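Same chain as my last thread, 131 residues:
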Amino acid sequence: MAAYFFDSSALVKRYVQETGVEVVSALTRQTRSGALSPTVTAIALGEFRHDFAHQYHTVDITPMVVDRAMNVAETHALRGYDAVQCAVALVVHMYRHALGMPTLTFVSADAALNSAAAAEGLLVDDPNAHP
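reply #2:
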């Protein structure tokens, strides 16, 4: 079974057409700017919260993840949060590989993060490449 790691810039696209933003922050900013109605925002936030509780698997930030994130940040000059997301995907990928599971695909709309993930050996997909 295929597995995907979605960073927030990619995940938000499931709920609203927007580039380069995080889910809840993106939705609330769009409402404040008038780009989304409060009703549309409430529906999208409700869908996200439901999906988060029932469809997505979260990963704890362990010392192994922090160590990997520091290395990724140093090697690829990523911001802290981006380095953590890349590190989580790398650790999950490592465990999946050890169990003989299919390769993890890293999904992000952030070009620098995608470049780092690819350089670290992950398959990468940018949702902006799929109009």
